[in-house]
Amino acid sequence: MVGRTGALLRAVAAAEPDGATTSGAARVAGLARPTAHRLLTALHAQGLVDRGPDGGWLLGPELYLLGTAAARRYDVTAVAQPFVRRLADRTQESAFFSVRRGEETVCLLREDGSFPIRSHVLHEGIRFPLGVASAGLAVLAYLPDREVADHLERADLAAAYGAQHGTGALLERVARTREDGWAVNPGLLVEGSWGLGAAVFDADERPLGALSLTGIEQRFGTERRRELGALLLREAHALTLALRRP
């Protein structure tokens, strides 16, 4: 029951800020619609989910209060925010900080640069499996080979995200990410929307998340990708050191 409830809350979070339908949340959580409706109704009674003006399910006020209580131990956004803001200012693109949560990455921060055309693939709270989007690819690439293979064996990413997320194609991008140091998403989620990501590491040198940039394809040519990738690596290294400080 706890696992199903957690999956349902994550499904609702993924639909923010528009709100999730009962059927949509059930599908994402892998539950039957009647089961999802029963659980959502119980969560609503506890203030853990809410209903939007159009009836969609949203995260509830009680989650905010619980999150505030937990923030002192787990919140890394205060440390990461200046790095994300600096990336957005220097590149004029949209910059992000995502953290690893199990076999997913969760976007915690977004800062938009001054360039008027923006990508809206990422927003705070959105989740992707490892290997999907530049942040997820950056994290996956710096896991041990055995963990990469195990993840790709369990996750049928091609079914959800297309043939370019099949095992062979992903392993090629993992190898390229390790070679370059940064990951590239060449418009695989939304055509024309490119992304670059660089992993951030914990004290054990395991990837805990990633800094990333997104923008339109015309601004991510070969030379500029090298410049942006080098900048991402510098900022990711600096953030890694900052997060390790007491």
Task: Report on this structure.
Helix content is 50%, strand content 20%. The chain contains 10 helices and 8 strands.
Proportion of helical residues: 40-55%
Average predicted local confidence, pLDDT? 91
* First-residue to last-residue Cα separation: 37 Å
CATH class division of the largest domain: Alpha Beta
Give me the CATH architecture of the largest domain, please. 2-Layer Sandwich
In the predicted model, the low-confidence regions spanning at least 5 consecutive residues are none
Shape: globular
- The count of helical stretches stands at 10
Radius of gyration: 18 Å
Tell me the total number of β-strands: 8
Q: Main β-sheet: number of strands, strand sense, barrel status?
A: 6 strands, antiparallel
Number of domains: 2
Largest sheet, spatial ordering of strands:
5-4-3-8-7-6
Question: Secondary-structure blueprint of this entry?
Answer:
Elements: H1 2-14, H2 22-29, H3 33-45, E1 49-51, E2 57-59, H4 61-74, H5 77-91, E3 94-101, E4 104-111, E5 127-129, H6 133-141, H7 145-154, H8 157-161, H9 167-180, E6 183-186, E7 193-201, E8 207-216, H10 222-244
Antiparallel strand pairs: 1-2, 3-4, 3-8, 4-5, 6-7, 7-8
Helix pairs in contact: 1-2, 2-3, 5-10, 6-9
